[in-house]
Amino acid sequence: MFHIVGERNEKFKTQIFAKSQKTRIERIRQSAVERYEQPLFFAFVLGFSHVFFTRKRLVLDVGCGGGKNLQRILNHSKSINAIGIDISPTSVKTSVRKNRRAIKSGRLQVVQGSVEALPFASNLFDLVTAVESVPYWEIEKGLSEVYRTLKKGGQLLIVNETQSSDGLDEYLAEVGFKVYTAKQLENFLKQTGFKKNRTDVNENGKWIAVVAEK
Fold first, then answer.
1. Contacts of 22 by beta carbon, 8 Å cutoff, 6+ apart
2. Does the predicted TM-score (pTM) go above 0.85?
3. Are the CB atoms for 131 and 63 separated by under 8 Å?
């Protein structure tokens, strides 16, 4: 009898410990997400404050992921319509699910596709946004396609990390990521034909918002 009770106590202790560990891990994960998303959000807001719209106010979000930035874009003004594009079918489904109301109202479309071969007409968009998606691009092809689909006077907003964390450079190179400096991005933009580039760097120097005009 006492042996059984002892086993139950040990099992109970194990369950409590596991639950405590799970809670601790979740807190660490949430803290990491907040540390990542807060500077990203402020960099996005800072960059968005430098863009302007012409008549139709049509925005393309490249690498729309789960659709959070599409929500931010549409919330900026009721006169904005948007299209989100992502190469991942899973991301497209998530973005559609998160933005059902905007899609139903006709303000938003979400499609699967690649920035290197945008399935859109030339001179179509007033603004193209790329939030943490440029590292996945073939940069020269992607910028060329963005330039083609922008109207004259249209703008491109890039929000991105400017450097990788210590110890991650080799790993990022292996998996195909590329973390560009502000100067590198500015050079690529200039080579593509963009003008009037404006770059803002957040206070820790690791996040940038670049606005360029066609």
1. none
2. no
3. yes
Q: Determine how many CB atoms are found less than 10 A away from the CB of residue 36.
A: 13
Distance CA 140, CA 207 (A): 21
Query: Token pair for residue 162?
Result: 């400017």
> pLDDT for 160-208, tens place per residue?
876 555 555 665 565 566 778 888 899 999 999 998 788 887 666 677 8
Q: Distance between CA 52 and CA 39 in Å, rounded? A: 22
Strand-pair partners of 83: 60, 109
Measured CA to CA, the distance from residue 93 to residue 89 in angstroms comes to: 6
In angstroms, the CA 87 to CA 115 distance is 8
Tell me phi and psi for residue 87, to 5 degrees.
Answer: -75, -20
| Contacts for 45 with CB less than 8 Å, ≥ 6 apart | none
68-76 and 2-48 helices, crossing angle to 10°: 40
Number of residues in the chain: 214
In 3D, which of 59, 32, 65 has the Cα closest to residue 135?
65
